[in-house]
Amino acid sequence: MMSKSIKEIIFSTCKNILGSKIRNDIKNQLHVLDRDESGMLAYLARQQNLQFLSYLIIDRDRESYQNLPRPLLINQLSEAQKKYIEIGNDVICRVNAFCLSSLQQINPDLIGLIDPYDEFTYKGSHKAPKKIFTEIINEIDLKETFNDHPGLTIIKRSLRAISNINSQQFQASLRDSIKTIMKNIHTSGIKNVPEDISRFPLSARRDSPEFHIANLLFGLVALKTSLFVIDQMIFSAFNIDKLPVLDNDNVFSIKHNGHNALGEYLITESQPTGSELFASPGDIIFVDLVREDHTINGPFLIENKKMSLGSEYGEKIQFDMRKLDSTLNPFFGLVKYMD
Q: Model pTM greater than 0.85?
């Protein structure tokens, strides 16, 4: 019997969330915040792409926003809002811990480089009841499947050739390099590969320290990005009834559909007809397009969104998206590129 993929397990988890009792309480509190036009908390939280954690950190630091040159009003979370948002955040933190558990045996110092929440400190007073996890998450399947992530495979291979991995200086260098790689990917545009990535396999011998470090970095990026997508999908399951969809009914143009060393990308133009109007960079969107010569089907990560007025179709949206593979990694080409 073939084991399930990370994508299959997370989709199943999201389906379980939709049927859970706690979900309506969490969703209702988020929607109250969305409708609060007197404050900026919900808007700012969506921009940060830290799921529930965004709301909690902004609420905690709300006074600092009033001291800005252009002060922003952040209304304090009610006790009910804080309770249910903290429960949602605890669910995501526990999922991250399940996924990263195998690194405890390999090299626990790497966990902080991969965990999307590692650089943010928040201690809440509300935890998700244990029965919630038994209702929505198959912990064993999640741990075992994430342990087979190809990013983890190349990390293991690289660690055998790197001796100073646990030094604080090297850890700091890795953290800075991951941020630089991610920044360069996003600033290069969805169709392009940053030069510092494209030259690695060509400029370094496979037995060189440079190659092993590059291998390690790309493996860390692959795991970190998969975790971000998992977190975003779980947050979406608590917040919306289904993922926004791009299909033949709203997409009138496929501007680009290609691939490069990072993975596969898609750029579409569509006329907004539903929830895709509110989708933002960092969100997951489902694509189901049938054309004469090919079909595009599956979840994509939105990297950029542009809204404009078109003479023929009225308001139109351009989405720049990256396809998610079976590990929910939009940069799956990095792992194959270094293999």
A: yes
3-state secondary structure string, 105-146? HHCHHHHHHHCCCCCCCCCCCCCCCHHHHHHHCCHHHHHHHH
Domain boundaries, the chain: 6-144, 150-241+333-338, 245-323
DSSP class of residue 286? E
User: Is the CB of residue 48 less than 8 Å from the CB of residue 54?
Assistant: yes
pLDDT in tens, 277-331: 889 999 999 999 998 788 999 999 999 999 987 656 678 999 999 999 999 999 9
**CATH classification for the domain delimited by 245-323, as one of 2.30.300.10, 3.40.50.300, 1.20.58.100, 2.60.120.560:** 2.30.300.10
pLDDT one-digit tens code per residue, 208-257: 777 888 889 999 999 999 999 999 999 999 999 999 999 999 999 999 99
**225: exposed, middle or buried (Cβ count in 10 Å: 0-12, 13-18, 19+):** buried
Q: Report whether pLDDT(66) > 50.
A: yes
Query: What does the alpha-carbon distance between residue 170 and residue 164 come to, in Å, rounded to a whole number?
Result: 7
How many CB atoms sit inside 10 A of residue 107's CB?
14
3: left (phi over 0), alpha (psi -120 to 50) or beta: beta
Beta pairing class for 284-290 and 245-247: parallel
Task: Report the C-alpha gap between 197 and 190 in whole angstroms.
Answer: 14
Position 5 confidence tier, pLDDT thresholds 50, 70, 90: very high
